[in-house]
Design a protein that fits this description.
This protein is α+β, with helices and mostly antiparallel strands and 109 residues long. Helices cover 63% and strands 16% of the residues.
Length: 109
Amino acid sequence: MLSLSLMKVHLNIVPKKDKPIADVIQDLMSSNKKMGRGFLQKRLKVVWKELMGQNIHSYTKSVYLSKGTLFINITSSPLRQELSMSTTKIKDLINEKFGREVVEKVVVR
């Protein structure tokens, strides 16, 4: 009986370390930079399609981030020109979606 009561006391003293899954994933990404960058690149492609829609996405050859610069390769010249004039808006939309400053500069090619 004594050991059972000691076990109850021990369980009550030890603080819980439950965390939301989002915090656990964030901790994992922060501790492993290579995994974090890979996850960011994959998420960026999904966010690009969500923000720009299927029409613009269909003309997008690639979207990738390198050292804070977002590179967007577009196959249509008129669309490339239009997006080139909207780089600040693109940067703001993506950063807002991520909830932090991920993109510092946008280059449309």
